[in-house]
């Protein structure tokens, strides 16, 4: 222990630790006058205290407002929640874009999630909680679909992750398989077919053999077929296609509904067309494209994707100019704002497959211009 001379300990401590003398009952230390002179414009202690009191009061008021809002919500909760409105919205939005811009549909989905998510913090009867989790999983999955179509792959994956958590909480195997199959389409369409095949495999496993998950199983098999086809695994792709065909032919009316949550014939033909296009089986692909187009609206994204598959088949058959022109025709049928995201990605794949020696063709240059406009 260091001992100070009698009467000097407090002064040495104040000076050594830079403690103002007044705090130790001593006279002001010599260095205090120097610091005050150097500070010049330093705010007076009473002003600092006033500022701190004001800041704390403002922060407390903001915190209090949030606490009271949460408390009021908790007091208003009587142990029951009516999910009719939420479930009605899920069913309505699941029918697709219906001519609406993806941004508008995404806004609706985000609004619904913002209202439904916090309800999970409250205590509900078991069945209400399962139904709420199921609705959140469906909303999250559909939001991810829109984000995927817009080309926002990272955001889409984040939404799918939340949707899968909700499906697990709902104990809904069919919903979880659907979420996983849809999730696999993100890496599938954005350059990672091996990852897509793995996730599609998880979806098929989640679906199992239960009839209640048949639609999800068919979707998962179709996505797996596309992933294997892109990766060059022809045998696996054909096996998955056959499996998807078998399931799709036995779906109930409810499961085969033409919605984002169902697996309608149009959707089956779209996936089949993509797989066969990548397998370069142009004749078989054309049959799926024809069948899918017969079920598609004149302005929907599905029609454009099928037409782009047809353009790729023309390219595969040795006609790069014809393939590029077919792609140009497909793109120009859609408004400019609808040529971004997945549509642009699919057209860009076709352009990338055109040999460098053929990119000076007028058709190829026109396609390149459209891609640049949609970037």
Automatic annotation (TrEMBL):
InterPro entries found in the cross-reference section: TAT_signal (IPR006311)
Domain of life the protein comes from: Bacteria
Protein name: Transcriptional regulator
């Amino acid at each position: 222990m260091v001992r100070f001379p009698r009467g000097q300990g407090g002064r040495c401590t104040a000076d050594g630790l830079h403690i103002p003398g007044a705090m130790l009952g001593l006279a002001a230390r010599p260095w205090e006058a120097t610091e005050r002179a150097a500070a010049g414009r330093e705010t007076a202690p009473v002003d600092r205290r006033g500022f701190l009191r004001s800041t704390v009061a403002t922060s407390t008021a903001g915190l209090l407002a949030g606490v009271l809002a949460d408390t009021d919500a908790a007091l208003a909760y009587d142990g029951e929640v009516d999910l009719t409105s939420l479930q009605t919205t899920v069913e309505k939005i699941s029918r697709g874009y219906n001519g609406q811009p993806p941004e508008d549909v995404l806004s609706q989905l985000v609004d619904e999630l913002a209202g439904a998510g916090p309800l999970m913090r409250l205590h509900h009867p078991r069945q209400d909680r399962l139904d709420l989790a199921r609705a959140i999983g469906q909303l999250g999955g559909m939001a991810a679909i829109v984000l995927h179509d817009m080309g926002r792959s990272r955001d889409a994956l984040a939404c799918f992750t939340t949707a899968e958590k909700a499906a697990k909480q709902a104990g809904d195997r069919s919903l979880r398989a659907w979420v996983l199959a849809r999730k696999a389409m993100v890496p599938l369409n954005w350059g990672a077919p091996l990852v897509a095949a793995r996730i599609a495999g998880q979806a098929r496993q989640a679906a199992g053999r239960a009839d209640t998950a048949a639609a999800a199983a068919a979707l998962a098999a179709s996505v797996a077929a596309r992933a294997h086809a892109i990766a060059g695994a022809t045998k696996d792709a054909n096996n998955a296609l056959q499996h998807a065909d078998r399931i799709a032919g036995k779906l109930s009316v409810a499961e085969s509904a033409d919605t984002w949550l169902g697996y309608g014939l149009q959707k089956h033909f779209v996936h089949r067309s993509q797989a066969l296009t990548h397998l370069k089986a142009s004749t078989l692909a054309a049959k799926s494209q024809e069948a899918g187009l017969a079920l598609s609206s004149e302005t929907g994204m599905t029609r454009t994707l099928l037409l782009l598959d047809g353009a790729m088949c023309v390219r595969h058959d040795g006609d790069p100019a014809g393939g590029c022109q077919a792609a140009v025709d497909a793109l120009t049928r859609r408004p400019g704002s609808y040529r971004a995201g997945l549509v642009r990605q699919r057209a860009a794949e076709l352009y990338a497959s055109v040999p460098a020696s053929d990119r000076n063709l007028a058709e190829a240059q026109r396609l390149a211009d459209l891609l640049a406009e949609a970037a």
